[in-house]
Amino acid sequence: MIIEFEGKTPKIHPSAWIAPTAVIIGDVEIGPDSSVFYGSVLRGDVNAIRIGARTNIQDNSVLHVDGDAPCILGDDVTVGHMALVHGTTVGDGTLVGMKSSLLSRSVIGSGALIAAGAVVLEGMEIPDRVLAAGVPAKIRRELSEEQSAGFIPHAGRYVDLAKRHNAALN
């Protein structure tokens, strides 16, 4: 469902795929070959949500904003099932684990891994190519270039998967 809010209509690239049960509200832009899976909500009501190319938002995830904190996801980002991404900036090629929470004004670098269930506190900065895990999240170790680079093909598999879901529904 695509909802205009206070004069702002979501802008979705023609090659992006939105599941029929996803809800996209307000000032949201979704880039090429990106996907938003079933039950996810992207609510750009009091600030902007920007999603780059080939980024996937998996089932039942929530992206929201604060008045002073937009939600910006780069290219080739994977947001795992049931994640909460709230007023956060996420760099290219990062994997956000299932049921993790990224709180307002946090900044996640490129090629990072946020472990499943992690809670990244407000204003926390996670550098490029590290594993952050725990409640609250702490940097556990650096990732090798090879490990970090592996997140990009993962995002690419979701480009293909979204096309298959689109075909199944049409």
SSE topology sketch:
Layout: E1 2-3, E2 11-12, E3 17-18, E4 23-30, E5 35-36, E6 41-51, E7 56-57, E8 62-64, E9 71-73, E10 78-79, E11 84-86, E12 89-90, E13 95-96, E14 101-102, E15 107-108, E16 113-114, E17 119-120, E18 125-126, E19 130-133, E20 138-142, H1 145-149, H2 151-169
Q: Can you characterise this structure?
A:
- Pfam families: Hexapep (PF00132).
- This is Gamma carbonic anhydrase family protein.
- It comes from Corynebacterium hylobatis.
- With 170 residues, the chain is mainly beta.
- It has one domain (2-169): 3 Solenoid (UDP N-Acetylglucosamine Acyltransferase, domain 1).
- 14% of the residues lie in helices and 37% in strands.
- It has two helices and 20 strands.
- The protein has helices at residues 145-149, 151-169; strands at residues 2-3, 11-12, 17-18, 23-30, 35-36, 41-51, 56-57, 62-64, 71-73, 78-79, 84-86, 89-90, 95-96, 101-102, 107-108, 113-114, 119-120, 125-126, 130-133, 138-142.
- Strands 1, 2, 4, 6, 8, 9, 11, 12, 14, 15, 17 and 18 form a twelve-stranded parallel β-sheet that branches.
- A hairpin with a 4-residue loop joins strand 19 (130-133) and strand 20 (138-142).
- It starts with a strand and ends with a helix.
- The relative contact order is 0.13.
What would a concise description of this structure say?
The chain is mainly β and 170 residues long. Helix content is 14%, strand content 37%.
CATH superfamily: Hexapeptide repeat proteins
Helix content: 10-25%
Order of helices and strands: EEEEEEEEEEEEEEEEEEEEHH
Count of domain modules: 1
The CATH topology name reads UDP N-Acetylglucosamine Acyltransferase, domain 1
Fraction of residues in β-strands = 35-45%
Largest sheet: 12 strands, parallel
Mean pLDDT across the residues is 98
Protein name: Gamma carbonic anhydrase family protein
Pfam family, one: Hexapep
InterPro entries: Hexapep, LbH_gamma_CA-like, Transf_Hexapept/Carb_Anhydrase, Trimer_LpxA-like_sf
